[in-house]
Write a structure and sequence with these properties.
Largest sheet: 2 strands, antiparallel
Order of helices and strands: HHHHHEEHH
CATH architecture: Up-down Bundle
CATH class: Mainly Alpha
Strand order of the largest sheet: 1-2
Number of domains: 1
Radius of gyration: 16 Å
Shape: globular
Number of helices: 7
CATH topology: Four Helix Bundle (Hemerythrin (Met), subunit A)
Oligomer: single chain
Distance between the termini: 20 Å
Helix content: 55-70%
Length: 170
């Protein structure tokens, strides 16, 4: 049996964004219980030259939306990341992203393995992919990097989470 392009994308994005949402809820509750400024977590980084938690979550959402939309051949929803500055804002962005992915039907993605997808068109960083290569060698690795970094920042900063929290509901 073969796996479909849809099965390898949208459900995976939704599972992991659900996990990120739960991680953020636990962090917000922990910060409130310990009387810690939530911004301390939102701006936390693993290393000074890396993006903070806030941006890691935003980029994970960007990849989930962008990859799903491009595979389905629909416009990528515009999201102004500069407006997401709180836990509530991030939760709203994650919910909107999941709702967008719920609007994509398997038939829109399945069979698009050979679709040409161009990233950063017209720039020196332009890259062309087939739909399958875009998902498997670019989209999923980028998405998982930011989800994993989100988890690592929170764990490093004392949030009591583990592998089950990272995996989310499956």
């Amino acid at each position: 049996m073969t796996i479909t392009l849809y099965a390898a994308s949208v459900p995976v994005f939704k599972q992991m964004l659900g996990s990120v949402s739960d991680l953020l809820q636990k962090t917000q509750a922990y910060a409130a219980a310990k009387n810690i400024d939530p911004n301390a977590y939102l701006q936390a980084r693993l290393y000074p030259d890396m993006f903070p938690l806030l941006r890691q979550v935003q980029i994970a959402g960007d990849f989930a939306r962008g990859v799903s939309a491009r595979l389905a051949g629909v416009d990528v929803p515009k999201v102004d990341d500069s407006l997401a500055t709180t836990f509530a804002d991030l939760q709203a962005m994650l919910a909107d992203t999941i709702a967008f992915m719920d609007s994509i039907k398997p038939a829109q993605i399945d069979g698009q393995e050979a679709r040409e997808i161009v990233t950063r068109p017209g720039t020196p960083k332009e890259k062309k992919f087939t739909g399958q290569a875009y998902l498997l060698s670019y989209g999923l690795p980028q998405f998982f990097f930011h989800v994993t970094t989100t988890y690592a920042i929170l764990r490093h900063n004392g949030i009591e989470i583990g592998k089950r929290d990272y995996m989310g509901a499956y």
